Amino acid sequence: MAAEALRASLAYRLQAMLDPGYTLLVAGSPVQVSRELVKGLAEAAALVVAVDSGGDLLHASGVCPGLVVGDLDSIDPVVLSRLCNSGVGSVLASPHKDETDLEMALAYLAARPVLSAQLVVTNVLGGRVDHELGAIGAMCRATDAQGRSPLVIQDDCAVVFLGAAPSRSTFCVGRHAPLGATVSCLALTDGATVTEKGMEWELDGVALRLLDARGVSNIVRSRDACVSVGQGIVAVFVNDA
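^ that's the sequence the OP posted. Answer follows.
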């Protein structure tokens, strides 16, 4: 993505949501985000974490992570050698582990909240559907009772995880997405309740079943558009208009 296009993108606007000192986690999707996005996100991050082959994208983007996590069965051996020679820290596991590399990275950061006051994840969508659903599930479980949750930023879309905790129950989508942007809310827990205002189709405390399609493909019609969750956990997908 060209620098001019990136500055006009949803990804660029969403960076206004980020707190100073956030942690950037670069996952290993085969459908890679742009190097410009990776560089832009890495510049303001206090810590950059490569999840296995996410290290390849970071290396290609000219970014050296502070930490590499995973079983390292997918990262280019040449890149891995260069990272190790640069003194990059690592958290290693056997390829026969029960959790994915992404789950491993999320658990490592959750145990060290000083490293992950806010967590931004990129290069995590696309590729095999089972891998993508597994990643969404892992990030859903990383949404904790204090309202801390991952924020996914891709080149042309984002995913915000909302829970009932006051600090993460509302997303003012109209402040960040252009009018006409598509917003989909998918319940990740059964019986989640959702309110949508400033949209083409408004909802008021509607209960959604797990992965209920009722929340798919709404449209931002106001700068005051927002999504709120009363109970449960919901993934809010935002796509550029």
